[in-house]
Specification:
Length: 318
């Protein structure tokens, strides 16, 4: 009899525990598998093609036209079967180059409902985009647009699987994207507490002030890098902070390949190869609009883990 009573109580707890104090069942967050793309504004599509296609070697598998128009709306440069760089014609000259970034989920509709339950503004339903994938925008507390994407079997991404991945690609993986962040606390509440990202490293460029925080997606190895600042950066600085990181096995070999290609006119010269604060070798390149493309090795030069930092957090930009 005691055993039966114990099982009844155990079952009751199993039913009650998922219930919140408001009497609603806590929703389970769907998986976030990786960084799907970054979207950038450019002043010249020809210059962008010269950089991302001819120089970095990525294929341009498809583009979209504006509705009822022959005018280009955006184009795609494919890094691998699950990652692309989206390029949009600029709307305002000399404006911020970052439009948005995207993460891939295994269930966009469940993610929409989950985010709504956490008080995040979401669309009324999950739409199907023009490329056939499920996607919608949410905005983080610092004003950065984060797109939620689910690849469908009928979408262009999966239909193009295994295609348009030439040997000319300087890299086959975008390990992270860097996004400017003024308020770290609010960003952590969104990405860590709600979306489930996990902090892997925080570092300082000068040893006194915290400069960046790396947050890995909960169900993959890709990450975002929160680039912190205490006052509004210049346009050039914004292009350096909002950035893309492309992984290569050997930076020196990749640099030699790129030296033999023509750097498009209007692009700043790359930096010298160096070992970063994270003890990984890297070189920085810049597209024609000043957006930094970090070419970096996946491992530290000494094989040790990346160091941590306990530097103070900069103040919030008002």
């Amino acid at each position: 009899m005691k055993k039966i009573l114990f099982l009844i109580i155990l079952f009751a707890f199993a039913v009650i525990l998922p219930i919140s104090s408001q009497g609603k069942t806590e929703m389970k967050r769907p998986k976030i598998l990786g960084v799907a793309h970054i979207a950038l504004y450019v002043k010249s599509m020809d210059q962008a093609r010269a950089f991302y296609k001819d120089f970095l070697g990525f294929a341009e598998p498809y583009s979209l036209k504006k509705n009822n128009s022959n005018e280009l709306a955006l184009t795609y440069f494919k890094i691998n079967d699950r990652q692309v760089i989206e390029i949009f014609p600029e709307k305002t000259p000399n404006s911020d180059r970052l439009y948005h970034f995207a993460v891939e989920t295994d269930d966009a509709e469940a993610m929409r409902q989950y985010l709504k339950s956490k008080g995040i503004k979401v669309p009324d339903k999950t739409p199907t985009g023009r490329t056939g994938n499920f996607n919608y925008f949410v905005t983080d507390p610092n004003g950065i647009i984060c797109e939620i994407v689910q690849y469908t079997d009928d979408g262009w991404t999966m239909q193009n699987f295994g295609k348009d991945i030439p040997d000319t690609r300087i890299s086959t993986h975008m390990s992270h994207v860097g996004i400017m962040t003024a308020n770290l606390d609010s960003a952590m509440k969104f990405y860590r507490d709600i979306l489930g990202f996990k902090e892997t490293w925080r570092g300082s460029s000068n040893g006194t002030v915290l400069s960046w925080v790396n947050l890995k997606v909960p169900d993959g190895d890709d990450y975002i890098e929160l680039m912190l600042f205490d006052k509004e950066p210049s346009a050039d600085r914004k292009g350096t902070m909002n950035h893309i990181c492309l992984v290569v096995d050997d930076v020196a070999s990749s640099a030699k390949i790129l030296q033999d290609r023509k750097l498009p006119e209007g692009c700043k010269l790359p930096t010298q190869m160096k070992t970063g604060i994270n003890r990984k070798r890297q070189i920085n390149y810049y597209d024609g609009d000043g957006t930094r493309i970090e070419i970096m090795e996946p491992k530290t030069v000494d094989g040790l883990s990346v160091p941590s930092s306990t530097a103070p957090v900069p103040k919030v930009v008002k």
